[in-house]
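for the writeup, i need someone to sanity check this before i put it in the appendix. the sequnce is what the collaborator sent (i think, or maybe the updated version? ugh). structure was predicted straight from it, no edits. if anything looks off just tell me and ill rerun, i have time this weekend
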Amino acid sequence: LDLTITEVVAIFGAIFLVVAPFVINAGLAKQNSKSVNTILILTFIFGWIVTLILLGALKNENFRSRSRREENFTAGI
């Protein structure tokens, strides 16, 4: 593999962003005497909910911007 420093930093950054919430929440669960498994499952579910909301917002914005372009195009005819 011929990776540049930017690619290596991006890979480690992405791994950190995925793993960090689980590590932090596991530590907080142990500290507060909560069920670590439950907290990790809730972290996973919450992460997916946020991902789906952001994906829906992105698709909605792309749809709105496309429909605006079509309105401008048909208005000019």
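The two ends are 53 Å apart (CA to CA). The chain has two helices and no strands.
thx in advance!!
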